[in-house]
Write a structure and sequence with these properties.
heterodimer, A: Rossmann fold, seven-stranded mixed beta sheet, B: about 350 residues, Nucleotidyltransferase, domain 5, 11 helices, about 40% helix
């Protein structure tokens, strides 16, 4: 388990950029953290790190469930908060196809933990101050 | 003898409402039937996609039948079948799309694929005078915040969009933080009537100078911090005095007055952000008229604040009738009429897309 601290949203984006260097097609990243933790900011950094040219493209997937960003590899940004039958619905959204050709990041991933592939990254974000966050990053075996 | 009207039949199912409508010449609404699902989604504080597509499947047949019967015109009078094909929940969009393709095929009519957000920007023309173009259009809803420069109904240039949450989504999330129920827009507005805007200091996020993009995520987080206290900060006895009513008490301990003050302060900030972005878009584009559409345009404080800004700028403001603020098929039929005139027809292999590709 690695631990990283960030002290403003820009540092969170920078951490995401840096983390992206370890990702390649087929990787799945489970993001955990409460409302306002900075999940979308972190995804912005990852997408930029994977070559997306405009970070403003990254926004909340809450309404559409899936956003796709055209970085060097497709980056899929999912919000699974509202799935009621997660197993069926993840499949319906094309989860396996996304893993086959891109990098997949899931917000509120704690709700679908048993469904994640082996080797999935887990990024837990803890709010420790107004703009201070602690990131715990680990990888399942 | 005057030319018979061109009548478009349209379906809309991009989120949680199932709707069908008949509209003549893009202006006159002959019928507009909407079946909503608010009660289905209340306990999840948001739309549940699987429930939504199942509900669409159940609703779409009766909604189509009612809209056709209510419009009082036979299928022989219908010029084309239009349908929302993007953006939205993919499972929900597909229900409307399949139904529209089936009708177009069986009736032998052309099919028209419509962008849902562009249709919101067109909605003020329904049942009234046509919009005088060019305009700056602001669409603010549960899923979208978009600023457009429209030369005509179909010539639409995107100026800005949200970089995180949509404004309606912020209302839903704040209603959730304050335990006010779902949908969040009406719940926050009701509570805000008893409160004082500005009682709670909240950030008016406008992004860098001149930006036409929106950000509502920081505002949502600021409300969360106000209610639960800033994490890591020790609450001093005078914290409530300095931070505004109810600071750090937790949602369950807030008095009704404190809840109302928070709701009113949040709502006023959303209205301010939307109004300022309208001003920036007018200055940037040179358009001298403003259109405000989408579900958030139902909010009376948002309407009043944008209206005040439009008056100050000397720009006429057009807002849809209340019934055409939230999702409806009449606006789809209205915009589709102009696509029909422009020859922008789709094939039966038209696909649904969850996002707007930029």
């Amino acid at each position: 388990m690695e631990r990283h601290e960030t002290h403003n949203p820009d540092q969170t984006v920078a951490l995401g950029r840096q983390f992206a260097q370890r990702l390649s097609v087929g990787d799945c990243v489970a993001l955990e953290g409460q409302l306002g933790a900075g999940k979308t900011q972190f995804v912005r950094g990852v997408a930029l790190g994977l070559g997306l040219d405009d970070g403003r493209m990254v926004c909340s997937p809450t309404f559409v469930l899936v956003r796709e960003y055209a970085a060097r590899v497709p980056v899929y940004h999912l919000d699974v908060y509202r799935l009621s039958d997660a197993e069926t619905e993840l499949a319906d959204l094309g989860f396996d196809e996304m893993l086959a050709d891109g990098v997949v990041l899931l917000e509120w991933a704690e709700r679908v933990r048993p469904l994640l592939p082996k080797g999935a990254w887990r990024v837990n974000i803890e709010i420790t101050g107004q703009i201070d966050r602690v990131f715990s990053i680990s990888r399942s075996q | 003898m005057s030319k018979p009207p061109t009548i478009i039949f349209a379906l809309e199912s991009s989120c949680d409402d199932t709707s069908a409508a008949l509209v003549a010449d893009g202006l006159e609404v002959l019928s507009n039937v909407v079946a909503g699902q608010d009660c289905l989604h209340g306990r999840f504080s948001g739309v549940v996609p699987e429930l939504a597509s199942r509900a669409h499947i159940e609703a779409i047949g009766p909604v189509i039948a009612e809209a056709l019967a209510g419009g009082g015109v036979g299928q022989d009078r219908i010029a084309a079948v239009a349908v929302t094909c993007r953006p939205g929940l993919i499972g929900s969009l597909l229900v409307g799309l399949m139904a529209a393709k089936t009708l177009a095929y069986v009736w032998g009519k052309p099919l028209i694929g419509v962008n849902h957000v562009h249709a919101h920007a067109y909605s003020p023309s329904l049942g009234g005078e046509p919009i005088g173009y060019p305009v700056v259009a602001l669409v603010a809803s549960g899923g979208h915040a978009a600023l457009y420069h429209c030369q005509s109904p179909t010539e639409v240039t995107a100026l800005g969009q949200t970089i995180d949450d949509a404004p309606g989504e912020a209302f839903d999330k704040v209603a959730n933080i304050l335990h006010l129920g779902y949908p969040g827009g009406p719940a926050v507005e009701r509570m805000a009537r008893e409160g004082t805007a500005g009682a709670v200091p909240l950030p008016v996020t406008l992004l860098k100078d001149g930006s036409l993009d929106f950000s509502f995520s920081g505002l949502k987080t600021a409300v969360l911090y106000h209610v639960n206290g800033v994490p890591g900060a020790r609450l001093s006895p005078d914290a409530a005095g300095r931070k505004g009513p109810g600071y750090g008490k937790g949602a369950e301990n807030l008095t009704r007055q404190e809840l109302a003050d928070i709701a009113a302060s949040f709502q006023a900030v959303v209205a301010e952000i939307l109004a300022v972005k309208c001003r920036r878009a007018v200055e940037y584009s040179g358009a001298r008229s403003i259109v405000l559409g989408g579900g958030v345009a139902r909010n009376s404080v948002v309407r009043a604040r944008v209206e005040e800004m439009a008056n100050r700028l000397g720009c006429p403001l057009r807002m849809p009738a209340m019934a055409y603020c939230t999702d409806n098929a009449a606006m789809i039929a209205g915009l589709a009429y102009h696509q029909y005139l422009a020859g922008d027809l789709a094939d039966l292999d038209l696909e649904a897309s969850p996002t707007i590709r930029v």
